[in-house]
Amino acid sequence: MTTTGQSAGAAEKRPPRADARRNIAAILDAATECLARDPDATINQVAKAAGVGRVTLYGHFDSRATLVAAVAERAMAEADSVLKDVDLAGDPVAALQRLIEATWAVTHRYGALVVAAERALPSEQVDQAHADLRARAERLLKRGQRSGAFRKDLPVSWLVTVLHSVTHAAVTAVHAGDLDAADGPRMISAAMLGVTTPAGGVVPDPAG
Amino acid sequence: MTTTGQSAGAAEKRPPRADARRNIAAILDAATECLARDPDATINQVAKAAGVGRVTLYGHFDSRATLVAAVAERAMAEADSVLKDVDLAGDPVAALQRLIEATWAVTHRYGALVVAAERALPSEQVDQAHADLRARAERLLKRGQRSGAFRKDLPVSWLVTVLHSVTHAAVTAVHAGDLDAADGPRMISAAMLGVTTPAGGVVPDPAG
DNA sequence: CTCTTGTTGAACACTGATGTTCGAGTTAAC
DNA sequence: GTTAACTCGAACATCAGTGTTCAACAAGAG
């Protein structure tokens, strides 16, 4: 606590050193990748993947939960920034396809990170984030139901669940080598356009 | 090793005592339920749920893996016995609905048990069982594609994946209280009939 | 160059789960 | 009723992951 010529008073924080910032970024990146692949990834694995010692990691993040929270927050921020630009107006079918396309990239990158968050974080935060993501799809699907574009005999919550579930299945399939990543959006779209078509209605062509 | 009047020679096995058999059954039942709910369930939790001490459990099952294997084997046997009776002939749409109905009961009971098996057992066994289950649906879907009842522009493997994924989602939703168990088959059928309908075709009514 | 901030591996304590051992007490079988 | 099979709790060893401490060392900021 030697006052080095700075104005005395409360805790004066100098900006972190350059290598520190570099390491923090590397840790966040590594943690994102590790946790997206395996939600049970070890702190050791993350540190090794980031190219730093375990102690260094703990120097920047108090605990596993802190790290997961930071990663999750960053992921949510990017997801929001990607999804907020999606145009959900106009023809509901086309809008759904746009939403799927945008969601695909995000889900494909962050994979099982949600699971890690669910285990390490208090449910309040996770629930909130989860609800936000669902709300977007819910609004669109509800609008489509009102306009008659989507089937009304299934609850919106179930349609959202199916969308979420099918997307996740596609990511898993890609990861298992059973599906080409480029085909993801088309597969999901084709499935979801079928699911949302009213009984007695004609299924639209996803190739459109 | 006092030979009690039995023919000497190799290991003579008397049948297990009545209470032992009772406990083994209780352990298998408890393990099934616990693992179906949480694939990470502890041996302690299983023992407690079965109403026996941990030591007793280890007396009957050498290790966690052994227990999981036994539970999985029993589950597979029941699943097979239920599914082998399903009539997959006739109209593919009706057959798919029958298959979904039958699958529902099994999946609903065994839930996340697959995950536990995947973690504890050598992948060969799990893959084999998994393949058997998928093959049934695959045959039906392929036949439907040939007859024109199901869409041909999506690979059968993807249709099976979606069926599996949607079924699992429904089980999860029921468990979370978001869906009534009795509605499961209708929700899955409605979704899958939409998914399998060829583009340009008319979606059949699941209520039918 | 100098001083402060960061990094590092090794060693440690702690936790929770698995699996084992022991001895005393029960219970089914015959 | 005698005996062998079974149960049970407590205690123990083991293992893997988390989080901390320490002391030597490296590197950025001024």
Could you characterize the architecture of this molecule?
- The structure is a homodimer of 208-residue chains.
- Helix content of chain A is 67%, strand content 0%.
- Chain A is mostly helical and 208 residues long.
- Chain A folds into two domains: 16-61, Orthogonal Bundle (Arc Repressor Mutant, subunit A); 72-196, Orthogonal Bundle (Tetracycline Repressor, domain 2), CATH 1.10.357.
- The longest helix of chain A is centred in the middle third of the chain and has 25 residues, at 123-147.
- The radius of gyration of chain A is 21 Å and the shape is elongated.
- In chain A, 35% of the residues are buried.
- The model of chain A is unreliable at 1-10 (pLDDT under 50).
- The A-B interface holds A 151, 153-154, 157-158, 161-162, 164-166, 168-170, 173, 178-179, 187, 190-191, 194-206 and B 151, 153-154, 157-158, 161-162, 164-166, 168-170, 173, 178-179, 187, 190-191, 193-207.
- Chain A binds a DNA duplex (30 and 30 nucleotides) through helix 1 and helix 3.
